Amino acid sequence: MSSPLATAIAGLSSPDLSTRQAATTEIYQLGRAAAGIAVSAWWADDELSTLLLAPKPAITVGLAVQRETFNRIRIANGTPRLAEVPPDQDAEEFELHFSDETLLDILTTREPGGSGAIAKYLAKFGEGVQQVEFRCANVDRATEILKDKFGIAPVYAATRPGADGTRVNFFLVGSPDGGKVLIELYQELLKAQS
Questions:
Q1: Which of 9, 97, 108, 109 could cysteine-pair with 70, CB 3.0–4.6 Å?
Q2: pTM confidence score
Q3: How many domains does the chain have?
């Protein structure tokens, strides 16, 4: 028996555009719902909510899939550009969106069965929502607030390079069901003018 999430993931590689759009929306809503509950208290902090671009935050749902699924989805959606991921990180990814409000990062491991974050996630959980990403005006300052005011330790001691020249850090945030949601804060850097 197939779960709604598995059905939606399969729908991302459908030849039918409306099926792909519906699948994108469903996966996005599932990821947003889990993250929304986990980070709900963050919006009450004025500085943090400003850093996270409230009242209209830019949120992307990161979907981890096996290599074959990744390739099928990418081909069905016109072969979107692969993000430039730092070589030390176990990920290949591309963006998928049908509107400005519904953004997915489709992720896979560079080393199936390896020890990287995406490979470990796929081995433990299978295909699914691996992370929810929030664009942030200043990841370093947001990290300080999350540590000092919310008692949430970052995954990495310092902000690190992310895909396409961003700066990132990650936070495992408790959810009401006793699980954890991986939240990525990412900061887009201005490219130097040449």
A1: 108
A2: 0.93
A3: 1
